[in-house]
Specification:
Cytochrome p450, 2 domains, five-stranded mixed sheet, binds protoporphyrin IX containing FE
């Protein structure tokens, strides 16, 4: 009986893989042809393929036709590699991200350029240094802080910012960058930089580390200048705190307190760790908040349910709608690693693939979250989805250090917006999410009435 049930479930999964893949091929062909016939040429096709709805279709087609696509082209030019493998089935994505020793993180060289000397733990392979630094930072950034400090801070900041705008809000400029910046200034305790500088420096450094696929030198120079200025800002914060004689109970203060027992955690090491956290915190949270709301605004029935929860002050339910919206429209559709040696993935299956040493492997978290063989109810907007199914912020050893912060901060930030009556996009172009040259939100207007 059990065997039959298993067989049946495998057949259903296969049928869903097949139908989703074939439908995706057909609808992509129509979309690409539409962009070409509309006279928008290569730029139109590129814009079409960059939409997350199109990306979902590309990955549905890949899952069916070429689940581990091995290309000789180098798509990510900012880190050494010999070509690209795109991995789209959920189990294979998980396998790549689980096999740290075979698939390494590549960010080390650029991380060193940012800190001015040392690596940061996201750029490290698993080992003593990684465990040392993450352990110390876990003592400085306690899980319990999310409830006692971070969520209240973001909640109050967002409530104040939204209250100041009676009928319209430009999300990135007036909320989604400012609330994460408050996490850095108040919770991390790095309060020595102008907020506008902090936001643009963090975004430039983030772009340099993760998004500079073509290694564009003008923006690289800007990012390195930003890194230098940010290092100075953190040095000043450390010096001020030491001079004051009272370390305090924020992340910086706890790092300084830890120095007594761990002398190797000197000021420079503290700075290197804090700069990594600053980079991770601001542009990502802002983009996630904008993209989640952008998605909900397209679906009035979902928006209405999220708004009903927001008006009850039910952040947990709001959070579930936001996470599910982000699954459809995530900040990063792939996570990349480089093969250390020739490696076989999906061994003993028909899709087994030998990945040559040096290949950059794009493990698609977006695809995994829509793979019917990996994620339950993958096509459905399902706010009750268990949190563990989300791969929005990575998987395995390097899973986002701010994962629990994200889970609490996103609803805390957006609940006051969602609670407004008659919430809709602003008229015209202002109501469409606009990204800057680094792909971060710069303009996204909503209007509402009180
Ligand atoms: C919604 C917002 C965020 C998104 C989408 C996001 C996404 C990610 C992803 C995908 C990774 C894994 C990268 C990889 O494996 O190559 C990661 C790691 C990391 N994130 Fe986030 N992140 C967010 C917010 C934050 C925040 C708020 C912080 C800081 C408080 C942070 C700090 C980090 C750090 C330090 C790592 C490295 C973890 C490690 O190497 O063990 N992130 N993030």
């Amino acid at each position: 009986m059990m065997l039959l049930a298993n067989l049946w479930s495998r057949l259903v999964t296969l049928a869903r893989l097949l139908s989703a893949g074939l439908w995706a091929v057909a609808s992509l062909s129509i979309g690409v042809a539409g962009a070409v016939f509309a006279g928008r040429g290569g730029a139109g096709v590129k814009a079409f393929l960059l939409q997350s709805a199109s990306q979902r279709k590309v990955f549905a087609a890949l899952r069916l036709l070429a689940p581990n696509l091995n290309l000789s082209q180098v798509l990510i030019k900012c880190y050494d590699n010999t070509g690209t493998v795109i991995v789209s089935r959920g189990v294979d994505v998980r396998e790549v991200l689980d096999r740290q020793a075979d698939f390494e993180v590549v960010y080390g060289p650029r991380m060193r350029a940012i800190t001015g000397e040392a690596n940061f733990f996201l750029g490290m392979q698993d080992g003593a240094d990684y465990r040392h630094d993450t352990s110390l930072m876990q003592l400085a950034m306690r899980r319990s802080d999310v409830e006692t400090c971070v969520a209240p801070l973001v909640r109050q900041t967002a409530a104040r910012l939204v209250a100041a705008k009676p009928d319209r809000l430009d999300l990135p400029k007036e909320l989604t960058r400012l609330a994460p910046a408050a996490i850095v200034t108040t919770y991390f305790g790095i309060d020595t930089m102008e907020t506008a500088d902090l936001i643009s420096w963090a975004s430039e450094m983030f772009w340099y580390l993760f998004l500079d696929l073509d290694a564009e030198s003008a923006l690289d120079q800007r990012a390195l200048a930003a890194a230098k200025a940010c290092r100075l800002g953190i040095d000043t914060a450390i010096a001020n705190r030491k001079r004051s004689g009272a370390y305090g109970d924020d992340v910086l203060g706890r790092c300084l307190t830890l120095q007594a027992a761990t002398p190797e955690f000197d000021d420079l090491a503290i700075r290197n760790n804090l700069i990594g956290l600053v980079i991770g915190a601001i542009p990502t949270l802002s983009k996630a908040a904008c993209q989640a709301l952008d998605y909900l605004l397209d679906y009035p029935d979902l928006l209405a349910k999220a708004q009903a929860a927001a008006r009850q002050g039910d952040e947990a339910t709001v959070g579930r709608y936001l996470l599910e919206a982000l699954r459809f429209n995530p900040v990063n559709p792939v996570i990349y690693r480089r093969a250390v040696r020739d490696c076989v993935i999906a061994r003993s299956t028909l899709r087994a693939c030998t990945i040559p040493a040096g290949r950059m492997v794009l493990a698609s978290n977006l695809s995994a979250m829509f793979d019917p063989g990996f994620t339950e109810q993958s096509d459905r907007f399902w706010p009750e989805r268990p949190f563990g199914e989300y791969m929005l912020w990575g998987y395995g050893l390097h899973t986002c250090f701010g994962a629990e912060i994200n889970r609490a901060a996103l609803p805390a930030m957006l609940t006051p917006v969602l609670a407004q009556q008659n919430l809709r996009r602003a008229e015209g172009a202002l109501g469409r999410l606009r990204l800057d040259e680094m792909n971060f939100p710069v303009e996204f207007g909503v209007t509402y009435s009180r």
